[in-house]
Design goal:
This protein is mainly alpha-helical. Helices cover about 65% and strands about 0% of the residues.
């Protein structure tokens, strides 16, 4: 006799977590067309950064002085700079640096904000009071002055830029995580877990941390564009990525500003790439915030599931 046992249904508590990404992407392409375009732009520049060595037609440091400051040609699609280096290859390699700094600094910001926001919001007391004063002190300094001061002490370099951009941004956003923790830690299911003997680590990891997924995704996507722009600004001033590394900011400062009249395209190409990638990431981040923030109309909410349609009968 054939086995007619019904297949096991998936666990009910797994559905919100597995369907969050699918629902978000589906609604993004359906309802937020500009945000979907921003996602495509971000992915495109990310792929350009990953495969920069394949896409580059010349070595980014190779000099051809007799052909310096040339316009676009078959040999050099975007022309050459003051040393005869291929501008196209340097712009492509600059995408790798910008995406690396933007993503890495945003990850550091998310980790700092999540860890300290969880601890300060859950335990409170004197530690919370001291932590809030540290946040106030960081916010009191103009961000550019703070970054330039720290970079002048650490020296230029990619790791230094990532740390200097990521840590202050994470400290500033501790309050975002703390506010979520304060609203969640007194809910009945957290109180029930505490009454059944669940330890602090288990409560933080299993009951409170999952509620931070949506706001941290939004924080990450929004901060990527800001960190890319901040890196370009610091490199433009000479405190970021040191030459001859092809940072878009340093290309705007050294090549573009110095040879603006002789070869204006030297400033046009890195500036265009910088504007497009920051615009795309910001549009994607704004759309993602609209979809994931439960306080906004149409937001998916903290449980990652759309509300059921209302009964019209």
């Amino acid at each position: 006799m054939a086995d007619t046992a019904a297949p096991k249904a998936p666990a009910a508590d797994q559905r919100p977590h597995t369907s969050l990404l699918r629902q978000t992407l589906s609604r993004l392409f359906r309802e937020k067309k500009l945000g979907a375009v921003g996602l495509i732009i971000m992915v495109l520049f990310l792929l350009v950064g990953i495969f920069a060595d394949v896409l580059a037609t010349h070595d980014m440091f190779e000099q051809n002085v007799p052909r310096r400051l040339e316009g676009p040609s078959s040999d050099y699609p975007l022309g050459t700079d003051q040393f005869g280096r291929d501008v196209y290859s340097r712009v492509v390699q600059g995408a790798r640096i910008s995406m690396l700094v933007g993503i890495a600094a945003s990850l550091i910001a998310v980790v700092v904000a999540t860890v300290f926001g969880l601890l300060l919001g859950y335990f409170g007391g004197v530690a919370d009071l001291i932590g809030q004063r540290v946040v106030d002190a960081v916010q009191a300094f103009p961000w550019l002055f703070l970054i330039i001061t720290v970079m002048s002490l650490l020296g230029p370099g990619i790791p230094q830029v990532i740390i200097v951009l990521g840590v202050p941004w994470g400290i500033v956003n501790i309050r975002t995580v703390r506010s979520v923790v304060l609203s969640v830690k007194e809910t009945p299911y957290v109180e029930a877990a505490r009454a059944t003997g669940a330890g602090t680590l288990r409560i933080l990891a299993r009951h409170i941390a999952p509620q931070l997924v949506a706001p941290m995704i939004v924080l990450f996507t929004v901060s990527v564009g800001g960190n890319i722009l901040a890196e370009a600004s610091v490199s433009f001033l000479g405190f970021g990525i040191p030459p001859p590394q092809p940072s878009w900011g340093s290309m705007l400062s050294i090549e573009g500003r110095s040879y603006m009249l002789e070869a204006p395209l030297l400033a046009f190409w890195p500036g265009l790439c910088l504007a497009i990638v920051v615009f795309g990431i910001n549009m994607f981040g704004d759309a993602l915030r609209d979809l994931l923030d439960p306080r906004l109309r149409g937001g998916i909410g903290r449980f990652g599931a759309e509300a059921p349609p209302a009964d019209r009968n």
